[in-house]
Amino acid sequence: MTDPVEAELPVLEAPADGVPAVVDTPEALAAAAAALAGGTGPVAIDTERAHGFRYSPRAYLIQLRRAGAGTVLLDPIPFATNDAPADLSALAQVLSDAEWILHAATQDLPCLVEVGMVPGRLFDTELAARLTGMPRVALGTLIEEAFGLRLRKEHSAADWSRRPLPDDWLNYAALDVELLIDLRDWLADKLDDQGKTEWAAQEFAHLIAQAQVVPPPRPDPWRRTSGLHAVHSARALAVVRELWTTRDQLASSMDRAPGKILPDRAISGLAARLNSPEVKRLGPQDLSAISEFSWRAPSRYRARWLAALDRAAALTRDQLPPKQLSSDGPPPPRTWETRNPEAAQRWNAVRPAVIGRAEQLELPVENLVSPDALRRVLWKPPMPLTAESLDAALEAELVRPWQRELLIPLMLTQLC
Predict the structure, then answer these.
(1) CATH architecture of 4-211
(2) How far apart are CA 112 and CA 45, in angstroms?
(3) Hey, which CATH number is domain 221-319, 1.10.260.40, 1.10.150.80, 3.40.50.300, 1.10.10.350?
(4) Which tens digits make up the pLDDT trace of 365-382?
(5) According to the UniProt record, where is the region Disordered (predicted)?
(6) In whole angstroms, what is the distance from residue 61 CA to residue 21 CA?
(7) SS3 at position 218
């Protein structure tokens, strides 16, 4: 049901200067780069991906807007070569001195970095809104709050790999950057009024740095399969692993979202049949008992699913996956009382104080310090415990200077 107040707001229907033609040729890209280079001030940037449709997280459309240059809708796909991503570093170079404005930059930066677009300076409107204490930080919500206008949301989950892109989708995409520069200024004023401008600057610099770090491969990514809580034995976990790996290989080779090939619930549902003591080995009859395996897409690969089941059944006991993956971090704090009583005392003293300080500062507590960083430092604090040693320990966990400045006195008061 539409919120009555939201329904009263005027809808931003179209960009003020119209929807530009899509940039998809070298000549058009050169002209767009020249126009953006001739613009002034910051540049608003957004991307559209095809999450839920494609395996690749690449950008299928990049929107840019700058004063004096207008809006650019760039299709990076024609500039890709031999399955390699497009190289748009030349475009990034002409914008190297400009501040880049993104909303929820952690979503857009990876696919921008993939095509060689790395900002020198950044302003993240979502993160800025969080730092000011705003409870709702979606782009549409902020546009409503700042300007009394409503953005349409109907194409946010569309398949942006579709070609040609429909005109109404391009209109939607252009509107995503239409007011982003104005929103940046509105939020910058709020940050300044609250004395949080430097905090935001450090956070934005951290985002840029982290976006350029290649993360290590996630151990056992198959353990994120939904419904895994219903899978009880190591043999059943092996079934999940083999089916997930088979699906992932198919998805990667076809650049299709894994869930379009076989939903998670089919994998976990089939593996959970081994929970029954009567079921010793899964075979064709079990595959037929899970309705999703009879759907058109999964049924094409029936031989592959059966081969995966055979591989899981052939594993020796020492080849089965452990029921739980060991972690390099501390256990959940709820277990500290029995496993490390001194750490539990530290947690019970410091955590409420951190929450209270975040409330005073009108910050989400996770923006004052990440829960993982706080757990790691309190589980095994530096010794001797001093302001200097605590500062070094927090810095090692990527806690920013402004956060450390606030946290260290508070933590020392509770721990000493």
Answers:
(1) 2-Layer Sandwich (3.30)
(2) 10
(3) 1.10.150.80
(4) 999 999 999 999 999 999
(5) 317-340
(6) 12
(7) coil
